[in-house]
Amino acid sequence: MPTSGEHADMLFDTVVFATDFSPASHAAGVYASALSVHFATNLIVAHAFTILQASMEVEAEHPLASLQRRDLSRALSTAASALAAGRGETQPVLLEGDPCRMIPALTERYPSALIAMGTHGRGAVDRLFLGSTAEGVLRHSSGPALTVGPNVDIAKAKKLNVRRILYATDCSVEAAHAAPFAAALADAFPARIDVLNVADSCEISRPDLTEHLQHHLHSALNSVVPEKATEFSEPETFVRAGDPEEEILRHIKERDIDLLVIGLRRNLHLGMKNRTSGVFPIIVASTCPVLTVASGSFFKQQK
Predict the structure, then answer these.
(1) CATH architecture of 162-257
(2) The domain 14-148: what is its CATH number?
(3) Dmax (CA) of the chain
(4) How far apart are CA 17 and CA 91, in angstroms?
(5) What are the C-alpha distances in Å from 297 to residues 53, 103, 277?
(6) So where are the chain's domains?
């Protein structure tokens, strides 16, 4: 494994860990710290809150922070002090406002930032009506985000032993934005890459089309794999038929995947609202963290 900082100029300058102080956030915090150390980045621990009416009245009448703000500041400082940064000191940042918008806005202050966060994975009905904070952050973020679902083993985070990465693609433009991140991460750890496309059943039933898809996937990823990395990260391509969510989760289990990389689709008619509809159920069920890449995300080429 490369030494800390060897790939710091390649991907991330800053890791922004978004926490709500819940158990679901704990595993994400371990991953955020491990990634910050591995890539020698700054580490920011952020929490966004909605101020209570009583607290607002107190702060309007007196030049003092309310009890709510003081308590959150203390909790945030405690959380930050427990996580090591790869560069400098871990910085706590308390934000007032909707976390779904405030966390992405904070991240945009940094040229090459990765959001890291956890999710408890609410039920389908809850998500339909209330939404998930983590999913809301993904909808409003323009950069890459690592989301740790409730089925991820925290022991893996402490070792950060990423040996095999799955890049799932539907061959769309949105999916292509994630390919350079998958390739660069494979170089950084180092790790091997699986490329999976879940095709229509009528396509996979024809050997000529299957072979064409495999060649297309292989060529597309090879074009962004660093030349020096090809000796260990030569991608293996897989074309399967079926439900994309089921096939991706099956592949993660069968191939013992340590990290899933996937692009976020932007629906032209629904805009941001539908971009996570197919991905978030995978995040919730996955046994490995999921790196989502929005179209237009930065990508720092290795120097």
Answers:
(1) 3-Layer(aba) Sandwich (3.40)
(2) 3.40.50.620
(3) 74
(4) 10
(5) 37, 16, 19
(6) 14-148, 162-257
